[in-house]
Amino acid sequence: MATDTTIWHAAFPSPVSSPSRISREELHTRLAAGNRDIQVVDVRRTDFELAFIKGAINLPAHSFYPTLSGLVPILSRYKQVVFHCQSCSTTGRECARLVGSRMH
């Protein structure tokens, strides 16, 4: 059986934004302090059901691009949006780049 090795975001236009990173320690500190200007977006699929960051919303990466036009007005209400994917460093960053490209 052949497997599809295509990268999920390869079918979408290349984003032009370069989002900054935040350390897990800084994110924890800000969330623990009750910072309401930050929103965490967990871009995992079913892993979210097992464990998640309190207050995070789940928007799976593979369905992210088609919903951007509705997401941008909602996410733009926050001073900072953090995209989280526990299993790799690429998925969250690519979602952040897609949103950032639409917000600027």
Describe, in plain words, how this protein is organized in 3D.
- InterPro entries: Rhodanese-like_dom, Rhodanese-like_dom_sf.
- Residues 34-98 form the Rhodanese domain.
- This protein is an alpha/beta fold.
- The protein has helices at residues 24-32, 68-75, 91-103, and strands at residues 38-42, 57-58, 80-84.
- It has a 3-stranded parallel sheet with strand order 2-1-3.
- The longest helix has 13 residues, at 91-103.
- The model has no long low-confidence stretch (mean pLDDT 81).
- Work out the number of β strands: 3
Element order, helices and strands? HEEHEH
- Overall domain count: 1
| Biggest sheet features | 3 strands, parallel
Please tell me the overall pLDDT: 81
Gross geometry: globular
Fourth-tier CATH superfamily name: Rhodanese-like domain
CATH topology: Oxidized Rhodanese, domain 1
Domain Rhodanese: 34-98
Organism: Rhodocollybia butyracea
Protein name: Rhodanese domain-containing protein
InterPro entries: Rhodanese-like_dom (IPR001763), Rhodanese-like_dom_sf (IPR036873)
Which key features would you list for this structure?
Oxidized Rhodanese, domain 1; 3 helices; 104 residues; single chain; three-stranded parallel sheet; globular; alpha/beta
Please specify the SSE layout and strand pairing.
Elements: H1 24-32, E1 38-42, E2 57-58, H2 68-75, E3 80-84, H3 91-103
Parallel strand pairs: 1-2, 1-3
